[in-house]
Write a structure and sequence with these properties.
Layout lengths: L30 E2 L8 E7 L11 H7 L3 E6 L1 E2 L2 E7 L18 H18 L3 E7 L3 E4 L6 H16 L9 H10 L6 E6 L8 H13 L3 E8 L1 H5 L7 E5 L6 E5 H25 L3 E6 L4 H15 L2
Parallel strand pairs: 5-6, 5-8, 8-9, 9-12
Antiparallel strand pairs: 1-4, 2-3, 6-7, 10-11
Helix pairs in contact: 2-3, 4-5
Length: 308
């Protein structure tokens, strides 16, 4: 784990990651479950049906009303979390293969994912990862033990250590695959730059709605280098720009296209934010230059305050 050992992945351990909606897990934990059980948090009364076990009858209510009511309880369970990472070639931007400490979009996403998995492990919540470009290459089961955590790190370390150029993105296809293969009522956390020439936003959000249809909660980290990719801040001189996913090349003076480029990219980002708001998807603008810890810390603090 040479790459991950350079960083403190326990910085957010003092925070919690709670599910906003009910989740289905398999052990008692921190999160609300849709199932009702015994000797957990009281939820409500309902009328007793003949033939049911009598152990949950509220006899105090019977003494007052002369009617049989049963106590219902709201069980708490652990969370299932699937962390989805875009591993297409554009995620290797900025291309800093010679600098093992430089942060590109994939390294940022992997560090953030590792920190979240460490937090979930501490909470005894189950997690897995899905890695995709044009299709899903790795989709693991949810577990919460240390050996599983180290295996997830090894998958990401391999991608970081061996960059592959000209791998395109097909997020719509990948997200539909993930929706079909992820346990319902999970928390889905996505790290992607969403740069996909094949998909329209409508197609992309149809895949996200597939996840919503399966009762998943979605958190989307929109990963980018704001200075270079949104603001197009380059020196005013000729550059040769190379598309990392297709290999296409274009030579131009940065000042010639900066205004139009920035306007188009801002429009693209605002459309994504608007659709996320419309479909109740948490959107986080993740500028890699700000660092993975400040981005995660800010989001988790805000999230936890909203749930108090």
């Amino acid at each position: 784990m040479e790459f991950f050992n350079q960083y403190d992945l326990k910085q957010i351990e003092n925070l919690d990651l709670f599910a906003k909606q009910v989740v289905e897990g398999f052990i008692i934990g921190l999160h609300k479950s849709p199932f009702h059980g015994f000797s957990v948090e009281f939820a409500e009364h309902r009328l007793y049906n003949s033939g049911e076990p009598t152990k949950n009858i509220d006899w105090k209510v019977f003494a007052r009303t002369d009617r049989l009511y049963v106590k219902k309880y709201e069980e708490e369970t652990n969370l299932r979390c699937q962390i989805v990472i875009d591993t297409s070639s554009s995620m290797y931007f900025p291309d800093e293969r010679k600098d093992t400490k430089a942060i590109n979009k994939l390294r940022f996403s992997s560090l953030a994912a590792a920190s979240l998995m460490n937090l979930l492990k501490k909470q005894r919540d189950a997690f897995g990862i899905s890695l995709f470009d044009e299709e899903v290459h790795i989709h693991t089961k949810n577990k919460s033990n240390t050996s599983h955590y180290l295996l997830m790190l090894s998958y990401m370390e391999k991608l970081i250590s061996n960059p592959v150029m000209n791998n395109k993105t097909f997020a719509t296809n990948a997200l539909h695959q993930i929706a079909d293969n992820t346990h319902k009522r999970s928390l889905i956390i996505i790290f992607s730059d969403l740069l996909d020439s094949r998909d329209s936003l409508d197609e992309l959000f149809s895949a996200l709605l597939h996840l919503k249809h399966n009762k998943h909660e979605i958190i989307l980290f929109h990963v980018a280098d704001d200075e270079k990719e949104w603001k197009f801040e380059y020196e005013n001189r000729p550059y040769l720009f190379i598309d990392m996913e297709t290999g296409d090349k274009v030579k131009l003076q940065s000042s010639e296209v900066k205004k139009l480029y920035s306007e188009k990219m801002d429009e693209f980002r605002e459309n994504i934010k608007s659709k996320c708001l419309q479909y109740n998807i948490d959107y986080i603008d993740a500028d890699i230059k700000k660092g993975f810890y400040p981005i995660l810390n800010s989001y988790l603090v805000k999230r936890n305050k909203m749930m108090v």
